[in-house]
């Protein structure tokens, strides 16, 4: 029983969360009260059936918040079972000591929360409550999420604002708070930013000492991109082994939406597996080809038209309102882009659903791959058009725009129209600097302002609503609709978290990939691009963490062993980057004079061969030099087996496991990185159960979720119906 | 004790080998007798110290054959220890049942022989006798090798001569006889030949229905090459898992020649490892670049000169003896090639030694990589010159040859010299068909004839020598120099095996790679190439097995999990093949008319992009469709762990291992593939020891190796000295 130390002792951070492990946000705006009550009862029933304790408070508007708490002993056992499963699937090498009833101590908050997540979402056959927000039976559940650990978040943000570099321990801390999937993103942006120091310094040197479009810088930049991608591949394996998540994709559970053709009992394991023909799936995946074509055509067409209009207005058009009209194409483009992107995203989502992936991981990856294509087109096509069409061929193309327009009329534009080759550089400078600042504002600042404003407005509304309620409902109901004084701060925080958006780590990763792509594709035209990106990323990293911890719901601590398909994106970009750099240097170096198609093609071909050759050398060399990780991993396996062998020869299986190296606790505000060393003194289970809850918490958990909830639904549902009714009348 | 069933019961094949496990061939032609005797004594001492039984007979000339036999119980324990080591290094998933004294039954002859090999060659600290033929202390040991299993070899050869395809069981049989490294080569040639059916059929179709240099055939051929390489990668993993050798490189022992910088005690495992900086090794490996350049220049120069001379003589020269002179360049080339190749091989070997690899495996791979480069140049450069230099530019270049020669004289050759574009096709036909037949003769038939002739001559010589011995030496010595009647057939076989060459599996693999390369690079110029190769390979496979089993020493059954660096060679060839095919089709399709450099480059660039794109699609698709192997592997691990978990929960560790699926025994002549099913009845160790040796075998093992050997050395050494003395006198 000495292992029964829960992850949530009575420290400051815990107190603020009132021992709540998970929150389910049930909304019933558009639901009839009778249906809402029955759904609510079923929800509570399912949760209780899965051994979860529940409590309920009202949310904003017609919604209730169901607070879930997993009994400590049960949670400890879930953690142990999860580790045994890891061992069965070969994720970890040593079998956790214990039997079916062992209660294990989670190493990190994320590990504990992951077990909670499984208890809430897994199918009933797997022992979960099968709560699937926004899907099927539970489509009225808006979200289900864990609560932020405010103290730890604040501590990390404070620490990072003072440092330049993130250390391994910082990444471990993110992993401990948010799980490996999120930690991989931060590890990526950290490695990437660190690597950016080279092209930034190299760029400054070349900018100062050599001519523009310098071959020296081009070669350095391309090599850097290649080395970074190969390094990251090794680093990723390194991290996945350090965090013991290598190959974790294998044990992910089946998505509820998965359609299988047959169930097969595996001859070797005896487990029942659901099979969907990989051949059919591959055929379905081939639909990616027409999708990519359509997306390219739609987005590319839009971009080309905008571009042509812009050129036309700025270079050819001489009519009235020219000053205003110049902005028109960009404005139109900005207006059309969201709806086209939305449409494409919807198609992409349907496609991904049709591709029918077994696990959520695979689903996410396939969806991200499609978004990558779309991002790629919108981000790079304008600059590609400038670099390889407008500047080289502008002098030939632009007069046609003129002629097409002024058919028959006298030509206003002189025939020897000349495009300024520095336009590419201007565009790169604008997009790489201004663009980054704007996107940061759009991503972090704007949502923050919006959220604050929204909250103010809602506060105002809800105060009015409370007054109305008072008049309408009984005393007992009234009590459940008014927050206790000691809970009110906590509840208002939970309500705002319930309204917050979900954090999408793939989006952030993609953003970094696009930045990387911009540097490799067009960096050669202005060597200071990397410097700008380096500065931006210092802020970006902290901004992303701020967004994650303040503006988004805490994501379920999902495990992953890679940044996903973005890695392939990086490889493609470093390859395209070499071709593009060679092409730009060839075209622009001598100011667009003496260009021959055959020598242009030869340049590209040679650049490509150099790329292929160098990549092979770099990956072989790096793998050789950085092979220590894999060696350490096999040494560890060797040690475990050796120890087991010795133990089994002398007596039986045993030996206490040397786990806990990476143990990270957020025990108090001062030492975020404390690693727990003192084992807790043995206590009886009851004592422990009590010890984890203080007075206010016990009070919080004392109500009856079923009764309270039903009362709330009736009260809030009626008032919501009233107010909609009123509004209808008023209209 | 029930596991004590040795791999060598009293069956036919065993009888013929007199229970001999290993043979050491000690030669002392150039050694003083006193030194020879002390070396011999040390050898026998070392062998006895390593718990090996020895027996001695004289060999051809001044040499003795030391027969080694590992006591059955000791061998069984070695096999068990080896399996435990496999488990420790993660090669197999389940710990073999037993303790330090367990005696295991080898699954295959190769497994038993591998343990014998280790006992003979491993360092004394590892429990071996540290016999290292041709190296250091043992540089007078010409070879150390196991004896062929004549019956099994003959049976396999007989079976294969009647079938078209090799089955999985045939590959398992090769593995059981010769180990995984050799089996991988046969698996490769089998898969490759099977795959050849497609381009053979496709080629016939295209040859019949479409024009020459058809794009249809070109695309099919390139796609086929790509699919084959990607398929083989998966197949290789499949086989390595089936044969339980995946990742086997990790447990290979350190080479005697390895130089390390420091010894480090691993923190995790506690094992001492010898470390040589991987960074320094990488730097040394970079010497491959100048080596490749030098090799290319030397071989390339030779080829270019030969080519130019040939062209000059056949096309320009009109002087006397033209008919004979035409063959001169080729003859000169053939005369120079071996010495240049030898020189380059020597440089390559020194380079590989300098690169200082820890294991023999890594050493072999590095050496093979260098040979690959040399093979590549000699095999492909002549045809590349024909295809891309002589035919397209011949009309421009050849007149220069003429002018250079006839400086100032009148020009005999008309200026509008024209090269026949069909020359490429003729060359491809000649090289792919005649070349294959000639190389088969050179590789299999010629050595066979040579060996037979050599044996006849030696028989004649040794008969004379025996007569001489009789006169010179004592009666006791005389007895050891004359074979017993019942042993004489066996001994003459062993003597001829001792003189046989070592089998180099890399050479055979390289030969297949060169064939593959020829098909991908130039196959498009004559679609029937693949058909020819297909027919050739049917013979090649059997010829190689004949060579392996009759003309070579039985190789030590070394394990490997791949065909090695040839795999990378195949990848490079399929890439180069695409480029070459595109170029040939572009150049030759319209009979060398309308060629533009820019469209030529564009063709190559597009072909390369198509290749890169398709390869990604093919490898992704194949990995998806053929993923069953890896799934099965993880299922197996899961099952093992699950079983262990259940066992450990209920009692302790245990459960009998379900090994032996692949067990292959060569028990008698009729059923080569019998899998042993009846467990042997328990017997006492002594009985078993006796049971494994019959009368003649017991007699064979009854002599005293030390005394007999010393007597032989003295006798043979003296007579050798006598005869050299005589010869010197005679001269």
TrEMBL record, chains A, B:
Anoctamin transmembrane domain location: 174-636
Subcellular location: Membrane
Top-rank taxon: Eukaryota
Transmembrane annotation, as ranges: 182-201, 213-232, 286-307, 327-348, 372-393
Membrane association type: Multi-pass membrane protein
InterPro entries referenced in this protein's UniProt entry, alphabetically: Anoctamin, Anoctamin_N_fung, Anoctamin_TM
Main location: membrane
Keywords associated with the record: Membrane, Transmembrane, Transmembrane helix
Annotated stretches, region: Disordered: 674-693
Domain Anoctamin alpha-beta plait: 19-141
Pfam families: Anoctamin (PF04547), Anoctamin_N (PF20877)
Protein name in the entry: Calcium-activated chloride channel-domain-containing protein
The species this protein was found in: Aspergillus cavernicola
Lineage: Eukaryota, Fungi, Dikarya, Ascomycota, Pezizomycotina
């Amino acid at each position: 029983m000495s292992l029964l130390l829960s992850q949530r002792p009575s420290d400051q951070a815990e107190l603020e969360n009132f021992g709540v492990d998970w929150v389910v946000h049930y909304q019933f705006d558009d639901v009839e009260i009778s249906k809402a009550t029955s759904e609510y009862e079923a929800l509570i029933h399912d949760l209780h059936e899965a051994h979860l304790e529940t409590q309920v408070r009202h949310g904003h508007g017609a919604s209730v918040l169901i607070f879930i708490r997993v009994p400590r002993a049960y949670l400890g056992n879930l953690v142990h079972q999860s580790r045994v499963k890891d061992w069965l699937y070969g994720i970890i090498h040593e079998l956790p000591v214990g039997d079916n009833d062992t209660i294990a101590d989670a190493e990190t908050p994320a590990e504990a929360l992951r077990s909670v997540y499984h208890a809430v979402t897994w199918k009933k056959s797997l022992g979960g409550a099968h709560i699937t927000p926004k899907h099927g039976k539970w489509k009225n559940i808006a979200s289900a999420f864990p609560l932020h650990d405010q103290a730890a978040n604040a501590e990390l943000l404070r620490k990072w604002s003072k440092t330049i570099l993130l250390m391994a321990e910082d990444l471990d801390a993110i992993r401990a708070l948010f799980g490996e999937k999120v930690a991989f993103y931060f590890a990526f942006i950290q490695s990437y930013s660190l690597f950016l120091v080279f092209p930034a310094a190299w760029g400054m040197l070349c900018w100062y000492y050599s001519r523009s479009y310098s071959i020296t810088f081009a070669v350095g930049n391309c090599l850097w991109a290649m080395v970074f991608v190969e390094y990251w591949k090794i680093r990723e394996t390194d991290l996945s082994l350090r965090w013991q998540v290598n190959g974790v994709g294998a044990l992910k559970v089946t998505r509820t939406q998965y359609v299988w053709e047959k169930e097969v009992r595996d001859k070797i394991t005896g487990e029942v597996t659901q099979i969907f023909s990989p051949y059919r799936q591959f055929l379905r995946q081939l639909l990616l080809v027409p999708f990519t074509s359509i997306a390219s055509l739609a987005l590319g067409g839009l971009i080309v038209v905008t571009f042509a209009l812009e050129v036309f207005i700025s270079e050819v058009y001489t009519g009235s309102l020219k000053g205003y009209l110049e902005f028109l194409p960009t404005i139109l483009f900005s207006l059309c882009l969201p709806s086209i992107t939305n449409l494409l995203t919807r198609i992409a989502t349907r496609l991904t659903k049709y591709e029918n992936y077994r696990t959520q991981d695979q689903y996410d990856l396939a969806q991200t791959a499609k978004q990558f294509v779309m991002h790629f087109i919108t981000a790079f096509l304008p600059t590609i058009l400038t670099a390889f069409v407008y500047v080289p061929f502008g002098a030939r193309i632009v007069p046609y725009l003129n002629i097409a327009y002024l058919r028959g009329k006298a030509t206003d534009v002189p025939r020897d129209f000349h495009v300024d080759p520095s336009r590419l550089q201007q565009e790169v400078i604008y997009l790489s600097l201004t663009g980054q600042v704007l996107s940061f504002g759009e991503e972090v600042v704007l949502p923050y302002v919006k959220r604050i404003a929204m909250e103010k407005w809602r506060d105002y509304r809800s105060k009015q609503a409370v007054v109305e309620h008072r008049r309408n409902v009984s005393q007992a109901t009234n009590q459940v609709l008014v927050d206790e004084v000691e809970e009110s701060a906590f509840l208002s925080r939970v309500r705002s978290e319930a309204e917050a958006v979900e954090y999408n780590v793939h989006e952030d990763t993609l953003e970094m990939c696009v930045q990387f792509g911009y540097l490799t594709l067009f960096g050669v035209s202005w060597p200071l691009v990397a410097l700008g990106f380096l500065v931006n990323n210092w802020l970006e990293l902290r901004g992303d963490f701020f967004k994650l911890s303040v503006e988004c719901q805490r994501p379920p601590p999902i495990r992953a062993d890679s940044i996903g398909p973005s890695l392939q994106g990086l490889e493609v970009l470093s390859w395209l980057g070499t071709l593009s750099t060679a092409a730009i240097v060839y075209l622009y170096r001598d100011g667009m004079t003496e260009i021959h198609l055959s020598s242009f093609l030869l340049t590209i071909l040679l650049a490509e061969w150099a790329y292929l050759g160098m990549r092979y050398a770099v990956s072989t060399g790096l793998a050789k030099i950085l092979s220590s990780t894999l060696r350490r991993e096999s040494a560890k396996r060797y040690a475990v087996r050796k120890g087991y062998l010795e133990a089994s020869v002398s007596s039986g299986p045993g030996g206490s496991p040397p786990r806990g190296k990476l143990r990270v606790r957020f025990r108090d505000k001062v030492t975020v990185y404390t690693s727990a060393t003192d084992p807790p003194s043995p206590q009886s289970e009851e004592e422990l159960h009590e010890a984890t809850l203080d007075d206010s918490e016990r009070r919080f958990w004392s109500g009856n979720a079923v009764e309270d909830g039903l009362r709330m639904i009736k009260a809030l549902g009626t008032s919501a119906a009233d107010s909609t009714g009123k509004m209808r009348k008023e209209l």
